[in-house]
Amino acid sequence: MIAVYYYLILFKNSKLKHILIIDDEDKLRGLLARIISAEGFEVSQANDLKSGFRKLQSSDIDVVLCDVKLPDGNGVDFVSKVKESFPLIEIALLTAFGKIADGVQAMKNGAFDYIVKGDDNDKIIPMLYKALEKAELQKKVMQLERRISDKFSFEAIVGNSKVLAQTILLAKKVAPSDSSVLLTGETGTGKEVFAQAIHENSSRKNKSFVALNCSAFSREILESELFGYKAGAFTGANKDKKGFLEEADAGTLFLDEIGEMPMELQAKMLRVLETSEYIPVGGTVAKKSDFRLIAATNRDLKTESENHRFRSDLYFRLNIFEIHLPPLRERKKDISGLANLFLAKAGLKLNRSGLQLSPEFIEKLEGYHWPGNIRELKNIVERAAILSDGNIIQPQDLPIELQHPIASNSGTISAFSMSGIEKLHIQKVLNYTHGNKAKAARLLEIGIATLYRKVEEFGI
């Protein structure tokens, strides 16, 4: 009774659950229907598999209770048909004569349970609640997967500018193939978002998308993260560890900032791309990985290879299909939409509803040159939401370089005084450190006392 009470609590606030009973014994089917209805469920009945399947097609059924032997077929085989057409529906089999072979085959076919009539009657209601719980969980997982898929779809990329539309068109064309893709563009232009969208629109979308930033690790750590390692390969390697190549098998490997990959690893990566084979650090046996590679860089790899700072053979292997992501300053029409999206997300994070961007605020955003691109826009909008006293975000909530965009985006630095340039630079660093003066002083490579003096001098 405790278990039943738990499940009653679990489902009391959800929509009425629908149970289908398929049995050719009218009295038993009617008795089961009354018992299950008394639990507060909607119940449908069918006396054979054909009519039962029609009810599945026409009604929103959650769980099926089905007899094994029916006039028009076998319930064990029916399980496969149900799971193939309605994978989220759970089906339990009822039989007058329990056979181990039937029970094993039923479970292989996807049945939730296999119950003997008479002997296991007291198990039916608890089993029913457990089956409903599993069905609910599967629906939530499916909804989550759908939201993830929607989040990383090309339709989720915000913007209507012509240059962005052309970029998306290229990505859509290459997505269904298995070709390597090289995403180029400045930092903060959304290269990982595009990589995710390409993966989600490929035949590998149900497999792993594994992302690794090549600039975030030393050569030794990057190698072990990429290739994995065997126990004892180095101090602290107490057990075998899978690398990103193995994790990406049958899926997509995204190597961000590949231009930062050390030359020694570039040679090893080239061999992997040519043979699909690699050897873990400390290992002697080659492994295989069937992955699709998407790489990204903010460097000009062609120039880097000409200057012998990047392997030319790896560059040509990567550059099968290059997609250049435009900087935000070339998509001014998209700034308003992006800013409103980031404001909505900031409102959820800050638990503040009704936030809006004033026309003057949008105008300031559109007049800025965005060296940090979309990432910078996101941070600035969130910062403005935090600083704003009301629901309407105003220009005074912006950093100083956006409040005076003429000075910050003209590109003719010589037209300004050195003190003006110094003030703007200090303000930018303080914005980056969220006002932490000690950290800002370290980044500026000046003493903390000097920084305080300049802050007071410039009125920052």
3D architecture notes:
This protein is an alpha/beta fold. It folds into three domains: 2-147, Rossmann fold; 154-326, 3-Layer(aba) Sandwich (Rossmann fold), CATH 3.40.50.300; 330-458, Helicase, Ruva Protein, domain 3, CATH 1.10.8.60. 49% of the residues lie in helices and 13% in strands. Helix 14 packs across helix 16 (373-387), helix 19 (418-432) crosses helix 20 (437-444) and helix 20 packs across helix 21 (448-458). It starts with a helix and ends with a helix.
Topology:
Blueprint: H1 2-11, E1 18-22, H2 26-38, E2 42-46, H3 49-58, E3 63-67, E4 69-70, E5 73-74, H4 75-85, E6 90-95, H5 100-108, E7 113-116, H6 124-151, H7 162-174, E8 181-184, H8 191-200, E9 209-213, H9 219-227, H10 244-247, E10 252-256, H11 263-275, E11 277-278, E12 287-288, E13 292-297, H12 301-306, H13 312-318, E14 322-324, H14 335-350, E15 356-357, H15 359-366, H16 373-387, E16 392-393, H17 400-403, H18 405-409, H19 418-432, H20 437-444, H21 448-458
Helix pairs in contact: 1-6, 4-5, 14-16, 19-20, 20-21
Short description:
With 460 residues, the protein is an alpha/beta fold. It contains 21 helices and 16 strands.
Chain-averaged pLDDT? 86
Percent helix: 40-55%
What fraction of residues sit in β-strands?
A: 5-15%
Outline type:
extended
Instruction: Give the end-to-end Cα distance, rounded to a whole number of Å.
Output: 68 Å
Q: Number of helical segments?
A: 21
Total number of distinct structural domains: 3
Assigned CATH architecture of the largest domain: 3-Layer(aba) Sandwich
What are the segments in which pLDDT stays under 50 over at least 5 consecutive residues? 1-13, 406-416
Category by helix and strand content: alpha/beta
